[in-house]
Amino acid sequence: MGYSDSQCGFLMTMGLAKFNKLPKIVAVGQNYVLHAKEMGAKSIPKDPILFLKSPTSVVIPPEPVKVPSGVVAHYEVELGLVISRMGKNIPKIKANDHIESFFCGIDVTARNLQLEAKSSGSPWSVAKGFDTFLPVSEKLPVDKVKDLNDLNLYLKVDGEMKQQDSTKNMIHSVEDLVSYISSVMTLQPGDLILTGTPSGVGEIVSGNVVEAGIKEPSGTSDLVTVKVAVEDDTDTTYTHG
């Protein structure tokens, strides 16, 4: 699938001829039952809850997470997917053909702003979109694991275990997510999907070191890891209202 002639003309006049090469980050909310409950969900979502994160939220350690003044930041460990090729309305049985690799991501969330957004029925874009709010690990080809739906996730803050669960406990499987997302928007090479976080989320502040990883169920060593420091963003003060 590509752009129509009129769309291409518009992009060219705006100097955005390569606009369709920009990746998108599609994230999934409340995809583990216990996390949905700790977030106050009254029922399990029938369809995946989708939101987008800004590409500028990605940060590669040793660059730190920077928390603006006025933000209460929470960690959320997630299995991330990298899309390999374009797809629209992808059948579940073909979903894995569109996944190039996987990674461990930490979906940092401005929880105070997210709760305000929820109470007013507003989007989560601000709460999820700050620069550096998605530290990522290296990526690993999917053929290095037996099953993306049976991997162990963990997250530690200053060496203390905070989150620990398995992707087998996801409400919507990897295949479900790829298929559903592609029914809404075309997936393109380089797009990222964050598959949701388990329970145990909590606050991080300047001076913390956050470490997260993904393992095989029977594995003793991590397949991928991400370790990132947290700092105050002295250049940014978030004000609203």
Automatic annotation (TrEMBL):
Pfam families reported in the protein's UniProt record: FAA_hydrolase
Domain Fumarylacetoacetase-like C-terminal as annotated: residue spans: 24-215
Keyword Metal-binding listed: yes
Entry annotated with the keyword Metal-binding: yes
Keywords attached to this entry: Metal-binding
Top-rank lineage group of the source organism: Eukaryota
GO-annotated cellular components: mitochondrion
Molecular function (Gene Ontology), one example: acetylpyruvate hydrolase activity
Family per similarity comment: Belongs to the FAH family.
PANTHER family: ACYLPYRUVASE, ACYLPYRUVASE FAHD1, MITOCHONDRIAL
Protein name as catalogued: Fumarylacetoacetase-like C-terminal domain-containing protein
